[in-house]
Every structure is written in structure tokens, then in C-alpha cells.
Amino acid sequence: MKKAPWLIIGTLLIVIFLQRIWLPSQKLPKRTQKETIYDTIHDTVPYPVTRYVPKLVYIDTGTTQWKWHKIDTTAILKDYYSRHYYIDTLANDSIALIIIRDTVSRNRIISRQKRLTFYPRTIKETTIRKIPNRRKLYIGLSIGRNPKQFALSPSILYTSRKDNAYALSYDVLNHDIYLSMYWKIRFK
């Protein structure tokens, strides 16, 4: 008669345990998700962006020799017929290098050369998949002590797909059986 309440409690715990495993009250959400992350990887080192002012590189005064007069007309004509070479850097960063070379004479652009260098970008696609929860089984050893006795019990722990844990232990020294149940607490 002394063991009847313990048998009833044990039977009820086993019934609760089996109901939670084989009769799920709610459907499990699908835990496998596919996430796509796009990363841009630059192949070059980025440079600080600065604004350039065209610098005079070379002046071709031509082959014509002008007579010197006290009037400034000779210098004006000499400058007018000479060729001025300019180099202008429009962009110099991690995306492209753009340089324009101009030759100016008689207040007109005689020739223009463009140098375009585009640095390729590599776009890498990373796919991350979350693995669904699996059933797991663990074994271990529990050691404990109270003021009157010492306890040593091997244990087996089972985790379900819902992240619930159930443990069964047998105390070798005191000949006791322990059943433990754990439920995951979710904070949203």
C-alpha cells in the first residue's frame, strides 16, 4: 500500500511523457530556411577620391619664329598657335580609373584621348541553411550528496524535435529511479 501513490505518480508521468512525444498538440514549424546573402568583394584597394585640376604638361611653341615687337601681339599669337597638353583624371577609386588627355591649340581641342579602366567586382552568393532539429540521445553520470547519504547515478537523456528533454537516472547506491522532464522556454 505504501507504494501505490508512487506507482500512480510514475504511471501518470509516463503517460504525460508518451503523450508529448507521440501526440503533438501543435504542428511543428518548418525550421529549414534558405537565406541568401550578397557580398560584394572588390578586387582592388579603394583610393581616396580627390579632385584634380588639369596640369599643363608640355607647350609646343611651333616652328614659326615671330619677330619681336614692343607690342604684346607676338606673345599672344605665339600662345594662340602653340599646343597645350592637359591630363585630367576624372575618377580614381575602387570602381574605375578615368583619365582624359587633351591637346588644345587655337582655342580648340585638337585631340582627345580617353583611358578607361574598370575594376571588376566579384559578387559572391552565400547560401545558409538551418538544419532542422533532430532527436538526440545522451548518456551521463550524476553525482550528488545530502547530509545523510551519497548518490551516484548513471543517466540517459533524450531530446525531442520540439527541444524537450527527458532524463532517466538510476541511483546505484540507494537503488532509486529518477525521471526528469525539461521544456525549452522561448522568449519572443
Number of helical segments?
2
What structural category do the secondary elements indicate?
Answer: mainly beta
Unreliable stretches covering 5 or more consecutive residues: none
- What's the count of strands? 10
Proportion of helical residues = 10-25%
The largest sheet is: 4 strands, antiparallel
What is the ordering of alpha helices and beta strands?
HEEHEEEEEEEE
In spatial order, strands of the major sheet run 2-3-4-5
Number of domains: 2
Strand content range: over 45%
What features would you describe in this structure?
This protein is mainly β and 188 residues long. It folds into 2 domains: 41-125, no CATH class; 134-188. The chain is 15% helix and 47% strand. The chain has 2 helices and 10 strands; from the N terminus they run H-E-E-H-E-E-E-E-E-E-E-E. The strands form 3 sheets. The protein has a 4-stranded antiparallel beta sheet with strand order 2-3-4-5. Strands 7-8-9-10 form a 4-stranded antiparallel beta sheet, with no helix packed on it. Strands 1-6 form a two-stranded antiparallel sheet. It starts with a helix and ends in a 6-residue tail after the last strand.
Offer a concise description of the structure.
With 188 residues, the chain is mainly β. 15% of the residues lie in helices and 47% in strands.
